[in-house]
Amino acid sequence: MKALCWNGINELNVERVPDPSILNPGDAIVRVTMSSVCGSDLHLLDGYVPTMKEGDIIGHEFMGEVVEIGPGVKKLKKGDRVVVGSVLGCGGCEFCQTDQWSLCDNSNTNPEILEKAYGHAGAGIFGYSHAFGGYAGSHAEYIRVPYADHGSFKVPEGVKDEAAVFTSDAFPTGFMAADMCGIERGDTVVVWGAGGVGQMAMQSAYLLGAERVIAIDRFDDRLEKARVHAKAEVLNYEKVDVLEALKEMTGGRGPDRCIDAVGMEAHTTGVEQVYDRAKQAVRMQTGRPAVLRQAIMACRKGGTVSIVGVYGGLIDKFPMGAAMNKALTFKMGQMYAQKYIPQLLDRVAAGEVDPSYMLTHKWSLDQGPEGYKMFKKKTDNCMRVVFTP
Amino acid sequence: MDTYNSTFSEQFDTAHISPPITGSSQINVGNTERIISAVGGALLTYYGLRKPNTLGLAMAAVGGSLLFRGATGYCPVSGAIGLNTAENESIAIEITRSLTILKPRNELYQYWRQLENLPNFMQHLQDVRQMGPKHSHWIARMPKGIGTVEWDADIIQEEKNTLLAWRSLPGSDIDNAGEVRFMDAPANRGTVVQATISYRPPAGAVGGGVAKLLNPVFKQIVKEDLRRFKRLMETGEISTIEGQPSGRA
C-alpha cells in the first residue's frame, strides 16, 4: 500500500510499504478514507519529539471502513464506518476503567523510554514516535487499529466524513481543554491558538457554558474563522499588547479560564522569542513556552490554566511565583479520546457543532509532503489538510 | 500478610528461597559457568551496543569477553590472576519487582499457579511442564539462539491466592528460585504482584563481578516479564508492533 513516511527532520516521502495485518486478537484493519494533518505532527517534523525512526508512517487523526477484525473484536464488524481516536487505550487498566484513556498502562509498547524521561509512561499514540509506542500511523491506505472495540466509534448516519474526521482528535482535544477549565456562569475563556484544536476549544467552551470566548493568534484568516464559526472575539498578538487588552476586556479582572492550544513551539514577539528560539536551538530547553507564560500572567486570581498544546521535555523561565501567588489551578493532558468521542459524534449529528469548515484542503496522499509544507507555512489560508488515501 | 504495605520490602526476607549451591555451581569453568558466561555475554553485548555511551561500550566489551569465555571455556582473566573459580564462595543474585494489576488476587494467583502458563508472559521461557503436584520441568531459551537450558523445580511454599515459591533441584543447569506474592492494593485498585527471582551464578570472584554487571539486565527482564503478565491479565493480549508495516522494510 501507499503510506506517508517520516525519513528525517522535515523529510517526508510517499512510499510503497506492506499492507498491515492483524497482530493481536483485539486488532482491526481499517481502510482509511480520511486522515488529517495535526499541529502536533509539526513537532515530529521539526525534530522536537525524539525516537522517530526512518520509515515510520505518521498521521493519527483519521476515519475509515473496517475491513478485517481479529478474533477478540466483539462490537465492530466488517463494513462499519468508524472514526478512531488518536490515542490508544486498552480498556482494561485502572486508567482506562476510570476514563483517563491517554494514561493507559498497557497500550505503549515501549514504556521504558517514557519511564526514564517522565517517571511513568502514558498511552501509545498512532504515528507519534517510538516513545509513544511506535504504532504505524494513518497517512496510509490501511491501518492496523489495536484495541479496536475501545477506540473505534461508528459514525451516525447523516454525519459527513468531513465533519466526522475531526472527532478523532481535534474536537475531543478542544473539548477536553474546555472541560478541564471547570467553566462557571459568567466566565470568560481565552484560547491561545486558533488552529483546529483551538477552534474546537472555543466552540466547546460555549457548549459548556462560557459567557465570552476570546481567541489569540497571529494569522488573520484563522482569527476570522474563530470569529465567524466560533463566535469568538479575536486578538492578533502581533498587533496588540495581549496582556493589556485582556485586562481591559475583562474589567481589570483578567480572563477566568485560559487554554493553551499551542504547545512547545509557540511564537511570540520581540526579545522573548529570540531568547527562547536560541535556547531551544541548542537544546537547553525543548519547548518555547511563550503562550504558557502569557496565560499565567493573564489569568485572573484563582483562575484555571488548561493545557492541551503538546510539550515534550523541559521549559525555561516558568513564572511559578505568579502561578502560586495567584492560586491558579493547572489542568493538562493528552486527550481522553474514548471518553469524549461518542458524545461529540452525537453533538455533530444534532447540528450543535460542524467542524467541517476546518477542512480547507482535501488532497490525495501522493501530495502528502506538499500538504505538510503548506500546513507548516500556513499558506493559502490553510487550516487543515486532509488526505483521502 | 495479604494487604499491601509500603514497608513490606524491608520486612520481606527471601533468604529461604535462595537456590542451593549444588555440584554444578561449584565446578571450575564447567558447563554452568560457560552457559552463564555465554548468556550474560550475549545480553551484555546486546544491551551494551544499544546504549550510546561509555557504560554501553564497557558493557559491550565485557559482554564480548564473556561470550568468548563461554564459548571456549577459557577465562583469560582467571588465567592471568591465577584464580580457580571453584575455590571461591558463590553469590546468589536476587531481584524483586512489583506491579499493580487491576484484577482480583485469586484470578492472578490461579493463572500463575498453572506453571504451564508462565511461558505466555516470561519471554525467555520456552516450556514449563507440571510433572506432579509440586514438581515441574523448565526449559529456557538463551538469547540469540545459543540454545536452551533445562532444570527441574519444586514448589516449596504455597498459600492459596497469596504466595507461591519454587526452587530448582540440585544438579540444574542454572540454580534458581522464585517467589511471587499477591496482595490487595488499597481501595479496589487491584492486586500488587511482587515477584522475586533469585539465581546463583558460577562461583568465584569473577562470577561475583559478572553478577554485578548482569544484575541490571536481569532486573529489566523481570520487570518486562511482570509487565507482560499485567498486560495479558488486564487485556488478554500483549501490545506489540512487531510485524507492522514501515518504510524500512
UniProtKB/TrEMBL annotation, chain A:
<comment type="similarity">
    <text>Belongs to the zinc-containing alcohol dehydrogenase family.</text>
</comment>
<dbReference type="InterPro" id="IPR013149">
    <property type="entry name" value="ADH-like_C"/>
</dbReference>
<keyword id="KW-0560">Oxidoreductase</keyword>
<keyword id="KW-0862">Zinc</keyword>
<dbReference type="InterPro" id="IPR013154">
    <property type="entry name" value="ADH-like_N"/>
</dbReference>
<dbReference type="InterPro" id="IPR011032">
    <property type="entry name" value="GroES-like_sf"/>
</dbReference>
<protein>
    <submittedName>
        <fullName>Zinc-dependent alcohol dehydrogenase</fullName>
        <ecNumber>1.1.1.-</ecNumber>
    </submittedName>
</protein>
<dbReference type="InterPro" id="IPR020843">
    <property type="entry name" value="ER"/>
</dbReference>
<dbReference type="InterPro" id="IPR002328">
    <property type="entry name" value="ADH_Zn_CS"/>
</dbReference>
<dbReference type="GO" id="GO:0016491">
    <property type="term" value="F:oxidoreductase activity"/>
</dbReference>
<dbReference type="InterPro" id="IPR036291">
    <property type="entry name" value="NAD(P)-bd_dom_sf"/>
</dbReference>
<keyword id="KW-0479">Metal-binding</keyword>
<feature type="domain" description="Enoyl reductase (ER)">
    <location>
        <begin position="8"/>
        <end position="292"/>
    </location>
</feature>
<dbReference type="Pfam" id="PF00107">
    <property type="entry name" value="ADH_zinc_N"/>
</dbReference>
<dbReference type="Pfam" id="PF08240">
    <property type="entry name" value="ADH_N"/>
</dbReference>
UniProtKB/TrEMBL annotation, chain B:
<dbReference type="InterPro" id="IPR021309">
    <property type="entry name" value="YgaP-like_TM"/>
</dbReference>
<dbReference type="Pfam" id="PF03364">
    <property type="entry name" value="Polyketide_cyc"/>
</dbReference>
<dbReference type="InterPro" id="IPR023393">
    <property type="entry name" value="START-like_dom_sf"/>
</dbReference>
<dbReference type="InterPro" id="IPR047137">
    <property type="entry name" value="ORF3"/>
</dbReference>
<protein>
    <submittedName>
        <fullName>YgaP-like transmembrane domain</fullName>
    </submittedName>
</protein>
<comment type="similarity">
    <text>Belongs to the ribosome association toxin RatA family.</text>
</comment>
<feature type="domain" description="Coenzyme Q-binding protein COQ10 START">
    <location>
        <begin position="104"/>
        <end position="223"/>
    </location>
</feature>
<dbReference type="Pfam" id="PF11127">
    <property type="entry name" value="YgaP-like_TM"/>
</dbReference>
<dbReference type="InterPro" id="IPR005031">
    <property type="entry name" value="COQ10_START"/>
</dbReference>
<feature type="domain" description="Inner membrane protein YgaP-like transmembrane">
    <location>
        <begin position="27"/>
        <end position="87"/>
    </location>
</feature>
